[in-house]
Design brief:
The complex is a heterotrimer of chains A (337), B (295) and C (254).
Chain A lengths: L5 E7 L4 E3 L2 E3 L3 H24 L3 H26 L7 H19 L3 H20 L7 H22 L17 H24 L1 H11 L1 H6 L4 H27 L9 H14 L5 H16 L6 H16 L3 H11 E7 L1
Helix pairs in contact in A: 1-6, 2-6, 2-9, 2-10, 2-11, 3-4, 3-5, 3-9, 3-10, 4-9, 6-7, 6-9, 7-9, 10-11, 10-12, 10-13, 11-13
Chain B lengths: L1 H28 L5 H19 L4 H23 L7 H18 L25 E3 L4 E3 H23 L1 H11 L1 H6 L4 H23 L8 H17 L4 H22 L4 H15 L8 H4 L4
Helix pairs in contact in B: 1-5, 1-8, 1-9, 1-10, 2-3, 2-4, 2-8, 2-9, 3-8, 5-6, 6-8, 9-10, 9-11, 10-11
Chain C lengths: L6 E12 L2 E12 L3 E5 L6 H8 L7 E6 L2 E2 L5 H7 L1 E3 L12 H4 L1 H5 L1 H7 L6 H12 L17 H13 L5 E5 L7 H16 L3 E5 L3 H7 L2 E6 L2 E6 L1 H6 L1 H8 L6
Parallel strand pairs in C: 3-8, 3-9, 6-7, 7-8
Antiparallel strand pairs in C: 1-2, 1-4, 4-5, 9-10
Classes of the chains: A mainly alpha (337), B mainly alpha (295), C alpha/beta (254).
């Protein structure tokens, strides 16, 4: 008996002239088709704080925003520049300690501490990781991963900066709305900003480095210097996240260097859609509440992140966002051959 | 003074034991083996479980653990790494995730009755009890055993890669994968074997070194850091580099412990790594292209 | 006239071994500005190693390379490209994930190209399309916008050359730029090389296709097992006994 052969057929929705990502828009309907998903996500995000039931979930949302920033930083470095940096927790800690410390020891206002922490923290992180940049990916990844441990050891062993108790209280935001909309606004800003950056000429150079470093060298470009730029930008994002958390929670301590902040962004990134920049943010928004619900289970969360990560990389490497977007743009069906 | 020297050498050997598995796997298959530290700790716990929960004799537990760990290494490659082979970013991320899942998974408590491995109660028995007294220094036999095992292991590895067919095939893969493929060497099988051997080496290191202290999950991270440190400082691609790098680290950490206490060891190691990276990025004895960007 | 041309590339006693194999053995030569030098020899004779050592991708064991009296040996590859010595790769290395014209944005972004463009660099996309047209991409077709992974080899080789040209180099080293191309494709590449030479660019060409090479080369060097067998004008060199023996082998006395 002959087996029926089937193949999957993908048809573009009959709405437009489209080729490889460029759209020729000819009607309101088409504009809506393109804008609707993006607009609804953005508006949805901005409305979310207003509809959430209670302060607790609003804080979770803010935390999700923090994770989103870290995920964006990781995604940018890993999938746009080809640099795997697992040091999210280190950026958090540096940003948090600088910002919190400035407020705790010197009484500087939030409007000053956060910018200073972001800029200075990024500088510190970049300088510290600078010598490791020419190394192969693995070594860079391991070293950046170990930095939070190192920082924790130094702080505890040296009894610095509040040691195990941390510093508190740190001045918080005037009210929670400022905090939430600050972080959400920054998430959106970062997504747009990074996308814009990658569209610029330097973004092409980033892509070149990720693709093929020999050819970049032969083109007269100093790869290490370009990586420094990329690293600085990524650490800006990460340190801001740390500075934000310091003020939002009113406390800085070695918990800022926790494993969570390094691992969860990666899981969020892979799950959400590596390389898309919006995907990781989405992933973070999904995983953060999930991790809150599992708070009682200790280290299960980290194991869970890792499992999600592995499953997605092996079986759905394109991530959720790309998958959804593909379904939106194309109709798939099985067709008899 | 003599004490510092001998303990420094012992520590150096410990570094060697920790690093050999990692550099072996990475050198052969270019696969990052984040799970190195996790396997180290896992072996300790498995052996402990065999001894304490099933009452098997020590030597049998050791052998069984090593076999299990070898199979685990092969399984990691066969079921996971093989699918991401060739995509460097994914390789790193996946390897990292597995390592972390294992390491943190060992800390889990209360899931389905599984009590996590936390706390200071886990100790592996030593092979040899007793001390050696010499005019200069007193040292326990376990530490001497470490030196012996280390040297034996290095010798064995050298012989293996130079005179055994499989070992030679592995070396061929490390030097030039394409050429090896053309000679009929099955890259996947070799990578399987490499990962298995690497895991076994990590396990062996665990069995020999862990009796000196407790089995903790933290040591998983330390082992990974140490292995990396040896590779970076000594440089990849040469046994001499690995040994000398390990010895330097061993002596340095011993001196540091004597002066300031073990808490600063981590900092010292990192400081040395960064120093070498600034001064001589390819490591003290390494060939340049091993450590840096592919040229 | 020839005596007044300055020597733009000086190679002195270049040697390099890989493991036990001596890839380059004491190679020396001078290259006057504006000339086309051909480097030929059987496979494995060290030609690509020569290119790699000159352009900084491989460090030689001993010997030096000078470009306008600047020592190149020891400099990183991007610095050498920045000084004005560009190279193509024998196995083409385009940026496969980028579109063809975007491939050129990378060299156009480099400090050297920016120096020539004056300040900010302007509209690199337009410059890229112009460059592609110069090497033979059809301007009005879709080809320049295709992803590099979709281009056939002939176009990729030209893309490599365009990548070099984006740097406005003074010396271009072409590593087997004719290999793998059909006769008609080569026939369209030769005028490009001639045009470059007329512009004053010094060219070193590693080649196997002797006929096409000899039609453009002023001078030829023959390498075999890492040693320089002969140097001179193309027809001179091909008469040299050592060269014939290297290519065709020895006479067998039966």
């Amino acid at each position: 008996m002959e087996r029926e052969e089937r193949r999957k057929e993908r048809l573009d929705r009959g709405i437009k002239a489209r080729t490889e990502g460029l759209y020729a828009i000819a009607s309101w309907r088409e504009i809506t088709y393109l804008l609707a998903p993006r607009a609804s996500l953005i508006i949805g995000l901005l409305i979310l704080p207003l509809v959430l039931p209670g302060l607790y979930w609003q804080r979770v949302l803010a935390l999700a925003g923090v994770y989103a920033l870290l995920a964006l930083s990781f995604d940018f470095l890993a999938h746009r520049v080809g640099l795997v940096c697992i040091g999210g927790a280190f950026m958090m800690g540096i940003g948090g300690y600088i910002s919190g410390g400035l407020n705790y020891y010197f009484g500087l206002p939030i409007a000053l501490t956060i910018p200073i922490a972001t800029l200075a923290g990024a500088l510190i992180c970049t300088l510290l990781w600078l010598p490791c940049l020419p190394l192969r990916g693995v070594y860079f990844a391991i070293i950046t991963f170990m930095f939070p441990h190192l920082a924790t050891s130094i702080i505890i062993a040296g009894g610095l900066l509040g040691s195990t108790e941390g510093l508190s209280p740190i001045k918080g935001f005037p009210n929670i709305w400022v905090g939430i909309y600050l972080i959400l606004g920054l998430v959106l800003l970062t997504i747009f900003g990074l996308r814009r950056l990658c569209g610029e000429d330097i973004g092409v150079v980033f892509a070149g480095i990720k693709d093929n470093d020999q050819a970049v060298l032969a083109s007269g470009v100093n790869i290490t210097r370009v990586k420094i730029y990329a690293l600085y930008i990524a650490t800006l994002i990460g340190c801001f996240a740390g500075a934000f958390v310091a003020h939002f929670s009113g406390f800085v301590g070695v918990s800022l260097f926790a494993l969570d902040f390094s691992v969860m962004p990666i899981a969020a990134c892979i799950m959400g859609g590596p390389g898309t920049l919006a995907g990781p943010a989405l992933g973070a928004l999904i995983l953060a509440p999930l991790s809150e619900l599992l708070r009682g289970f200790g280290q299960l969360r980290v194991v869970l992140y890792c499992v999600i990560l592995v499953v997605f990389i092996l079986f759905k490497p394109e991530g959720l966002l790309s998958w959804v977007s593909r379904r939106y743009h194309q109709i798939e069906r099985w067709v008899k051959v | 003074m003599g004490e510092v020297l001998i303990y420094g050498i012992v520590n150096g050997m410990i570094f060697v034991l920790m690093a050999v598995g990692f550099s072996f796997v990475y050198g052969i298959s270019r696969l990052p083996n984040f799970a190195h530290g996790s396997i180290y700790v896992t072996t300790g716990f498995i052996t402990w479980s065999f001894i304490n929960n099933t009452g098997l004799p020590y030597w049998l537990s050791v052998i069984l653990s090593l076999i299990i760990v070898f199979l685990a290494g092969v399984a990691i490659y066969q079921f996971v790494m093989i699918r991401v082979r060739g995509m460097p970013i994914s390789e790193i991320i996946v390897s990292f995730a597995i390592a972390l899942a294992i390491l943190e998974g060992l800390r889990l408590q209360g899931i389905g009755g599984f009590k996590g491995f936390i706390g200071p109660g886990y100790v592996l028995p030593r092979f040899i009890d007793g001390m050696l007294e010499t005019p200069w220094v007193t040292i326990d036999l376990q530490r001497l055993l470490i030196i012996a095992v280390g040297l034996l292991l290095l010798g064995f590895m050298w012989l293996f890669t130079h005179h055994n067919k499989i070992g030679l095939a592995l070396r061929a893969m490390a030097q030039h994968e394409r050429a090896a493929l053309m000679l009929g060497i099955n890259s996947d099988r070799m990578a399987n074997i490499a990962l298995g051997i690497g895991s076994t080496l990590a396990g062996l290191a665990a069995i020999v070194v862990m009796p000196l202290g407790n089995i903790t999950c933290e040591s998983g991270y330390t082992v990974l850091t140490n292995a990396i440190a040896v590779c970076i400082i000594g440089g990849l691609g040469s046994w001499v580099g690995t040994i000398l790098g390990a010895l330097i680290l061993g002596l340095a950490t011993t001196i540091m412990s004597a002066i300031g206490g073990t808490m600063w060891n981590n900092v010292l190691i990192f400081g040395l790594i960064i120093l070498i990276l600034i001064l001589k990025p390819s490591g003290l004895f390494g060939q340049q292209k091993e450590l840096q960007e592919r040229v | 006239m020839e005596e007044q041309k300055e020597t733009i590339i000086k190679v002195r006693n270049l040697s390099k071994s890989f493991g036990g194999v001596k890839a380059l053995n004491n190679i020396s030569f001078d290259l006057p500005k504006g000339e086309v030098l051909g480097v030929i020899g059987p496979n494995g004779s060290g030609k690509t190693t020569l290119v790699n050592t000159i352009t900084g991708f491989v460090k030689p064991e001993s010997g030096e390379v000078f470009f306008k009296n600047i020592k190149l040996t020891g400099l990183p590859p991007y610095k050498i490209a920045d000084l004005g010595v560009a190279r193509t790769f024998q196995v083409v290395r385009p940026f496969l994930s980028l579109r063809s014209f975007k491939n050129l944005i990378v060299p156009l972004w480099s400090p050297r190209a920016r120096r020539f463009a004056g300040g900010r660099g302007g509209d690199r996309d337009a410059v890229a399309i112009d460059l592609l047209e110069e090497v033979g991409f059809e301007r009005d077709a879709y080809v320049p916008y295709k992803f590099a992974s979709a281009l056939p080899l002939g176009y990729l080789k030209r893309l490599e050359l365009a990548r070099c040209l984006a740097l406005r180099p003074e010396v271009i080293i072409c590593d087997e730029v004719f290999s793998g191309l059909s006769m008609s494709e080569i026939a369209s590449m030769v005028p490009l090389i001639e045009r470059l030479q007329r512009r004053g660019v010094t060219i070193i060409m590693i080649e196997h296709r002797l006929r096409e090479l000899f039609s453009v080369a002023d001078k030829v060097i023959v390498l075999n097992f890492g040693e320089k067998l002969a140097e001179g004008k193309p027809d001179q060199v091909m008469q040299d006994e050592k060269v014939i023996r290297a290519y065709l082998g020895e006479e067998i006395n039966l």
